[in-house]
Amino acid sequence: MPGNILDVARQAGVSHTTVSRILRNADGFSYAPGTRRKVLAAARDLGYVPNAAARFMRLKKTRLIGITTQPQNAYATYSLIEKLSLRIRELGYTPVLVDLNASAPAAGGFLDVTHLAGAICMYAKHERELAARSAGFPRGLPLVTIRRQVTAGPGVRMVTTDNVSGLTQAFRHLYDLGHRRIGFLGYSESDPGRQAAYPVLCRQYGLAPRWFSVPVRPENNPFASAVHMARAVSGRRGGVTALLCEDDEFAAGAIAGLDDLGLKVPGDVSVVGFDDLPLAAAVRPRLTTVGVKMNEKADAAARLLVAWIEGNDVQRELLPASIVLEAALIIRDSTAQPPARNHTHAK
Q1: How far apart are CA 40 and CA 55, in angstroms?
Q2: How far is CA 127 from CA 139, 236, 310, in A?
Q3: Rounded Cα–Cα distance for residues 248 and 292 (Å)
Q4: Strand 242-245 to strand 210-214: parallel, antiparallel, or no bridges (unpaired)?
Q5: Is the pTM for the entire model greater than 0.85?
Q6: What mean pLDDT comes out for the span 112-124?
Q7: Helices marked H in the chain — which ranges?
Q8: Alpha carbon separation from 199 to 3, 141, 173, 308 (Å, rounded)
Q9: pLDDT surpassing 90 at residue 128
Q10: Whole-number mean pLDDT of the chain?
């Protein structure tokens, strides 16, 4: 857990007032270079982030923070936007949607970005577009992306989940159960961390990748798409005994679609989701999935952006360029050993 200002003062051997003045670059105060170095070093060591929300109450700046959006039927995206909105309000700002879908006017959307104090980008392409739109701003537009960072602007920070680790845990779990025909179900264009890890893991374990890709369309939703794909998953050409899914909605749809075909989970096919949405513990069988700490992600993204907006140059240097949250496999009832007729170590 990051230290507070008293921890920094204690480690540096100075008063908390001195710490505050040095970190704020307060006018009218001068400190020896050695004292400044000790304070900055202690702040970095302890991961101290200044309380931007408190300083905001004394300033007269725009209170608007954008959250980018586009046509999207995934519950996980809606849930994260809701959590971000709540946290942004708690920090003293007003969240607003910035519409960046392909059909929106290039200079419009729901809001002109010149009115924003900063923005949180839900997708990599949003980061690129906002970085381009704000290129003429004196300091750019402070951005926090919740995907892998794709631009190199000084005001861009990243908060994401270690999706590669999460998928690795899920793959290893299925392999250890005895599965050798492990498929992946998801959109054809999606989170690169989740999709990119799958073929790498197949190569590492000597298995053939089995892709079940759904074309990206605005009218799609993961549950219905997975129900439709169940026949391909269970067919002779697919022939998988285990299925890794891009998210929990895909996984729930796969379970329903397989059930429609008379196949049981996990008796015939094991299924693993991703995100640990509330539905994961509600569906039957209860879903084995990868938890991604969505509350922590929303909190970290909002706090990091506000700290950048309200910080001075010294304080911004102390902020992390990226925060990567751990993912953890949650084993429930949707995974088991493969059925006896498929339980083979043939690759």
Answers
A1: 19
A2: 16, 42, 21
A3: 12
A4: unpaired
A5: no
A6: 85
A7: 5-12, 16-24, 33-46, 52-56, 75-90, 124-133, 163-177, 192-205, 222-234, 248-260, 294-310, 313-318
A8: 40, 36, 16, 37
A9: no
A10: 86
